[in-house]
Amino acid sequence: MADDEEEDEGPAVELGDGEPVEGAPLARVASRLTWGKKKSYIADREGDAVIRTPDGPRELADVLAEVDVPYFESRQEFTDEVRAVIGTGPVPTADE
């Protein structure tokens, strides 16, 4: 009986009606890979992925072209190097 009551309650967290954001979070793209990886492997496999940046969505391949590191030992090293190129800050919504 307790299971039936939980099903009738609805979602625990309501999603807002905010503006959509284009691109995927960098962490989502990084989580699809195992580490260490060559930059060229990441560009071949995930280069067409569009990531969110403070300047708007960008293809990962374009960002990787600006990274000087040829091999990433860890996910942290990858995200640090990519963030050094794209910067950090608020991500604009699709309408901005």
Tell me about the largest β-sheet.
2 strands, antiparallel
Give the termini separation.
Answer: 48 Å
Binned strand content: 5-15%
Rg (C-alpha, Å): 18 Å
What is the overall silhouette? globular
Number of E-type strands: 4
Tell me the structural class.
mainly alpha
The SSE order reads HHEHEEHEH
The largest sheet has its strands arranged as 1-4
- The oligomeric state is single chain
- Tell me, rounded to a whole number, the average pLDDT: 87
Describe it.
It is built from five helices and four strands. Helix content is 41%, strand content 8%. With 96 residues, it is mainly α. The protein has a domain at 20-86. The model has no long low-confidence stretch (mean pLDDT 87).
